[in-house]
């Protein structure tokens, strides 16, 4: 239930109870209310009696009956309700007059498509001097000692980030004989992101292999991409060994591993056994990244500026989808997506972004968005546990994490003693009082820090329901933006507008500035933009190539899109 509407019902309930009580008290002895005609007479006489009493209250207080004092209280309540109702109506009119997106005024409908790009052209970057990841790296160097990445319970500065990225790129250049992509196995981490930044900045590409991949699939990717170097955590060495037991990999030569943040006793033993097996049985060179840096790069300082290469359409990151098909993301795709996120959510250098890796494309875009703006960034799979240390302003979490936050706050609502005994409209009204806001904010601060201003929810197989989305926003007290288009071909596509109550049948959203949208004949969403990479699901219409996302849409109109709610709806948030 909307907050203002709940307040309206609460005041209406109070007014109705008072009106009925006074009318019954003073008019019931005079009217036979047991018949329908008597009820109508009672209602008519009640309205006239209230009107006369209000007029007398203004004319002369002496002419009122003995009930003048309580009736004056009633009149004050009635006046307050009228003032509140007028204020509520005016606010609703103002909200309806507002455009839901600041770029709508300049937008234009082009070739039956929807876009929010004010220049009516293809959006590529928010900064004319930044067109590749190399430009982002050079920009990061200017931030100096500002905090950049959270690693091992401390903030690494931008200078440390750039130094680590350049050292890793040099290690790869020394050990690799070809320009084949470097394989990164496992989930995201600060060290891996530094390595990715360094490799992509010098023109190399990176192929991501998730830890959920089967051993045979890992071996297939290594062979297909001719990878010579692989980067992974020490605990993942056993997974690599298991993959190499399936068949021989002729291209792989060097294994670089990073230290684990949390070491399990069993994983630690298996990691050392796998390290010995990879060295002796598979004849691979296994190197500890931290040991190599300490022994050979202790006094190395990074270059201030790397030469800008023509890399705009060069491959930067290669991702394999669920069908084991390679998807190549270029520098142009990454910069466009990062710029669109920075513009839409007004990311500044004072922001702290805390993200759970949802998909490679979306997480990488969010990371590059932080680097582009000089913000701080951190990866985690334990949002609730780490928020107190990081104090984020923006969080991007999975629905499982949001559900855990929801349950914590729900316990607070139920523990508030007065709300148990009041009617639902009064309870909703109470939840917006300053006292409860203070109590709620204290608990939110304990869970998510004191500085939170925005929550991001990337659309996945289990999207936030609209009811869950609205409930989460009300409980946390900050906007929760649902981002659609969570595929490796298109990390971002559209984002939700408002609280989702404007359309019962679907999700109301608008495109990011880098995207143009169109509805196909099958009512699926076609996406075209700088952040869209080539794949086998591209269609050509009106001389332009569109990505068929497969996302069902109800309609596109007036720069708005309504995503169709899944028929077999599955959500981890309660409806």
From TrEMBL:
A GO term from the CC aspect: membrane
Keyword S-adenosyl-L-methionine: no
Alphabetical UniProt keywords: ATP-binding, Ligase, Membrane, Nucleotide-binding, Transmembrane, Transmembrane helix
Transmembrane regions listed in the UniProt entry: 7-27, 71-90
Keyword Ligase listed: yes
SUPFAM superfamilies, per the entry: Acetyl-CoA synthetase-like (SSF56801)
AMP-dependent synthetase/ligase domain location: 141-514
InterPro entries in the record: AMP-dep_synth/lig_dom, ANL_N_sf
Single GO MF descriptor: long-chain fatty acid-CoA ligase activity
Protein name (database record): Long-chain-fatty-acid--CoA ligase
Protein source organism: Blastocystis sp. subtype 1 (strain ATCC 50177 / NandII)
